[in-house]
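Shape matters. As here.
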Amino acid sequence: MKIKNNKKVEAVFKESHVIILLEDMRDDIKLIAEGVSGLREEMDRRFEEVNKKFEQIDRRFEQIDRRFEQIDRRFEQMDERFEQSDANFKAIFKYQSGFSDEVYGRFNQIDKRFDQLDSELAEIKEELKKIDKNKVDVKKFNLLEKRVIKLERKLEGYNKIVVRRKKQAKTKAGK
């Protein structure tokens, strides 16, 4: 937009007015520059404070990281201990199950022997009843008596074995 009447503009804005306006503007710009400078200094000071606080926070995080590392090491030690305990328990259970199977097997064998002795004793009793009925001679009676004594000794020996094995089983189970 062109100004058509330069004379009117010249009349309104004389050189002295323009100089005064420029000086006022220069003063205003100086004030703004001083304000910006002060603001910059304040911001720099605040940024330094924020940086110091961040450094403090970083130090705290480093301390926390060290503590977590210590805790991690402790958990690793606990894991190792639990793994050792698990292995020990597995070994104990394995030994115990093998021991129990062996003990039960031996008791089954002893039970079978007792059953055999019981049946032999029953046979002898039957034969004695027959002898009593038939009044067998002394030779047969003596033979039967010897068999009974022999079986009683065997039975007594088996009883001792059973008692001894029960004691052994108790001592092994207590270990």
